Amino acid sequence: MTTHTQRSEQDWLDKLRSTLTSDFEMQTARLTQLTADTGDPGEAHTRGALIATTRQSLEHITGALRRIAEGRYGICERCAAPIPRERLEVLPHARFCVPCQQKQPR
Q1: Rounded Cα distance, 66 and 70, in Å
Q2: pTM recorded for the entire structure
Q3: Do 38 and 14 lie in a common domain?
């Protein structure tokens, strides 16, 4: 890999880390707001679903940030092949390449 390519890749990771950190902060604020909201009891089910979705988003973001910090980001957890950058741009928390993701139980 050339120095230019390495620098480009590092710049992309730095930008992604910044974006994920910002997303983490927004989702944390949202979770705080949702869990503090004692609004209409009739909306409890909807609020519960929003809380669950927000927690899942936080788990995805935290996992991606951890993999970046550990130098494992963009490597399939099943086959250890590189995950294509196009996939990571669409799904930054992807842990598996497409073939391995298709083999994962749902």
Answers
A1: 6
A2: 0.83
A3: yes
